[in-house]
Amino acid sequence: MALTPAGGLRLHTQRLPGHGGPRPDGSTVVFLHGLVMDNLSSFYCTLAGPVSRAGHDVLLYDQRGHGRSDRPPTGYDRATSVADLIALLGSLGLDHSPVHLVGNSYGGALALHTALVRPDLVASVVLIDAHLTGDWIEDMTDTLSVAALGLEHRGLAGQLAALGRRKEARLTAAADALLNHTTVIEDIAADAPFTSRDFARLRCPVLAVYGQHSELLPGARELALSAPDCELCVLPGVGHTVLNEATEGLCDALLGRLGAPAGAVAR
To answer: Which positions are tagged coiled coil (predicted)?
Structure first.
């Protein structure tokens, strides 16, 4: 485990070197996970290994409040989370050349925001069923608020621990601490959805990979219409579960964008 200082926090990071040495462009692929129950481990058995084997250096990290990173009581708005990422890149010496950002779900919103505020740091963005437009902020905060109440009053972590389900108990306790003892819900509620004007300002290429049945697909279609360089890839038969249920198609699309041949996923 590595705890890396970043903007006054310690963020849990993991790095994987590209097999055969780094790619000629020297770029690193940075993975951004989703909210609350998610952390860097989501990418271990899905995308990080194949990307590393294709020759790309990989950076995984737990965002503030998640996994093994510090959990401060405030600072969960999009701008502060992006500032954490920028500080982390600086701390690791990765701010001298642009990186590729791959964001799943809410991590995609952070990747896109980074590309807007610091285009010099971003070589490309890959979105995996990311939240972009519409009422997603209101829907998400409603969902998180209900989850927070349930965790606070049901004592679910203790029940799971009593049943010997220790890993689930740890994840549930961490979710309870994040939702009920930080400003994460209020901070996310204060953010604004992206607009077509935001999309039009993007300077890097974007690959948007969405599930055919995802309720977030309309935002991706708006992105594809407005961004100067955006490819929309819709994977059949899945909704918001692209990362775990359409891993092979997602990985081929990602490797194709990064310059590795499709089919490079280890079978």
So the answer is: none
